[in-house]
Specification:
Chain lengths: 108, 348
């Protein structure tokens, strides 16, 4: 029992340390473009998409193992995704097909 | 990406391990930006000087001629009586003037025939964006049982048996032969050359104040302001090339069928260009509106309320004068485009 409790505490400390290490990387959407075409982040990092356009956006990815849909994002709104394993993620705007971003998630 | 100067009427234009975090509210700063000046707005509509062509299908006159010939050749259909130009008729704004297209054996299709105007700048083709590029798009209708009802094997066979075509393919794609790839690449090359000419609006953008009426100038301000039209009908082609649910009542879910995992794509269709728009009635993907004023009325009311509808579409409550001004503005986007020379089709 004592060992189990110790393990749980250790795991919680590791998770907390991990979260503390994680960064929040911001990508701006302006003039129907992502502010960068390529991005490198570490495992566990947050990527926040900031809509600085008057147009609506919808960030998503269909990359195997990383699929997500951040939904409709109105002007001034921001959406966030946490990327929790290494890999290369192709990110698109469902509304504006020319908006493309590739995120490389590196091990921490 | 290669380029070709735009020649119009002989004149060079100078002119899930991913964890999704819920959306959060952001600063109001973005919404409180000062309205752009008229000169800033005008700059967003300046025409390009070149047509972009992909590196793997660069422009040559031989490719354009071959593509134009194939485009008008009804032997590309299973029935031998339907060409690309049957529906994309240059005399009808590269569309057909019908509410919805007519396909094989004159059966009505599900959507209105889109124009092929200014597609060199487009990415993802068809109303629902199911083709990645023009080459891929060109292969679609030819082989669709509902449309031209051909098979690629039959089409290649018919073209190969035509000596005149053998020479044209060798001139256009030396050593590549007559294949599905060279057929669609040639058609795509021709389609990229179909570009709208200089319209009264372009002269106004270039500084000729008398080129458009005062009503049209007010319409331009509404288009970019209260109407919020420019958020989707953006840039000199007047399309963002994007996909939006505008709230048009319909059982057709458009791009939603291809991307069911993305909720906003249900009922979403590609934004059509507004260039030469008053030559292409009826309007909308289903041809449900017969006049531009009806279209403006629809947007003024704001469309159906449903979860997938774009956040950019809201009731506008436009006055009768504002609606008339918007229509007057859109009419300034029409140019006198030279019709393409009809090709003499090679015979077997």
């Amino acid at each position: 029992m004592r060992l189990t409790t110790a393990m749980l505490v250790t795991c919680a400390l590791i998770a907390a340390a991990h979260a503390a290490l994680a960064d929040d990387v911001r990508v701006v959407q302006r003039d129907k473009r992502f502010s960068t075409a390529r991005l490198a982040v570490k495992t566990g990092d947050l990527v926040t998409f900031v809509n600085s356009d008057e147009a609506m956006h919808n960030v998503y990815s269909f990359t195997d193992g990383f699929t997500f849909d951040l939904g409709g994002q109105g002007p001034g709104e921001e959406t966030t995704v946490r990327l929790s394993k290494p890999g290369v993620v192709d990110v698109r705007c469902a509304i504006h097909p020319k908006m493309k971003l590739q995120i490389t998630v590196q091990p921490r | 990406m290669g380029h070709r100067k735009i020649l119009i009427g002989g004149v060079v234009m100078l002119v899930a391990t991913a964890l999704v975090i819920p959306a959060a509210s952001w600063s109001q700063q973005a919404q409180e930006k000062a309205a752009p000046s008229l000169s800033t707005l005008k700059a967003k509509y300046k025409r390009p000087t070149d047509i972009p062509f992909p590196k793997n299908n660069a422009y040559t006159p031989a490719r354009e001629l071959l593509g134009r010939t194939l485009f008008f050749d009804p032997r590309l259909s299973g029935s031998n009586i339907m060409s690309c130009a049957t529906c994309h008729n240059p005399s009808l704004g590269w569309s057909d003037g019908l509410q919805r297209g007519l396909g094989h054996e004159m059966k009505q299709l599900g959507r209105r025939t889109p124009t092929i105007l200014n597609l060199a700048w487009a990415e993802l083709l068809f109303w629902d964006g199911r083709a990645a590029n023009l080459e891929e798009q060109a292969a679609g209708p030819m082989q669709s049982p509902a449309e031209m009802n051909g098979t690629m094997n039959e089409i290649v066979d018919k073209v190969q048996k035509t000596p005149g075509y053998r020479k044209m393919f060798e001139a256009a794609y030396p050593g590549e032969g007559i294949t599905p790839a060279t057929i669609t690449k040639a058609i795509a090359t021709f389609e990229r050359t179909v570009v709208s000419s200089v319209a009264p609006f372009d002269y106004w953008i270039a500084g000729h104040e008398d080129a458009i009426s005062e009503s049209a100038k007010r319409g331009f301000a509404i288009f970019n302001g209260k109407g919020n039209c420019a958020v989707c009908h953006a840039g000199w082609t007047f399309t963002d090339g994007g996909f939006h649910d505008i709230g048009l009542p319909s059982t057709d879910i458009g791009r939603g069928k291809l991307t069911p995992a993305v909720a906003t794509m249900k009922h979403a269709f590609k934004t059509p260009t507004l260039r030469n728009i008053d030559q292409r009635a009826p309007y909308m993907h289903d041809g449900s509106h017969t006049t531009l004023l009806q279209v403006v009325n629809f947007y003024s009311e704001g469309g159906a309320v449903r979860p997938s509808k774009s956040k950019n579409i809201k009731p506008l409550n436009l006055s009768a004068t504002e609606k008339a001004d918007l229509v007057a503005f859109m009419q300034t986007l029409t140019s006198s485009d030279p019709l393409p020379a009809l090709p003499v089709l090679p015979r077997q």
